[in-house]
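W.,

You were right to be curious about this one. When I first looked at the sequence I had no strong expectations either way, so I just let the prediction run and decided to look at it fresh. Below is the sequence, 146 residues in total, followed by the output.
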Amino acid sequence: MEVILRKDVNRLGESGSRVRVKDGYARNFLIPRGLAYELTPASLAMVNEERKQAQVHEQRVYRQAADLAAAIEKTSLTVKVLVGQDDKIFGAVTSQVIADLLAEKGIQVDRRKIDVGEPIKALGVFDIPIKLHANVETKVKVWVVK
């Protein structure tokens, strides 16, 4: 049976490609899981339409990430921490702290997208990278003060 793939399938092909598979594999695995359509002119049109919709969605997500990156670029955060002798910080500044400070300024960013690396345990100014999208990365300036 010849099918057209809706999604990438490991060791079989990429989305939109035509492949020949055994009838049972297509009827029992690919088609019920929504991974493929049986090859017909109507299914070709549906796959093309799905591809167009996916591109529109990806462009919208990219634009939102770019707008958010521009807002973050203009933002500077100040973290006030308690310090002991020799200016050693009690605790650390983590990605969760930075996400909370951004949320206070009205910018919602998932903490997993903030790449602090090792938690900050010193006073100073740090440029923290934030990966908002596969193609959009920005930095926020974080001031750690007493």
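Here's what jumped out at me. The domain at 2-67 is CATH 3.40.5.10 (Ribosomal Protein L9; domain 1). And, maybe more interesting for your project: The chain is about 35% helix and 25% strand.

Coffee later to discuss?

I.
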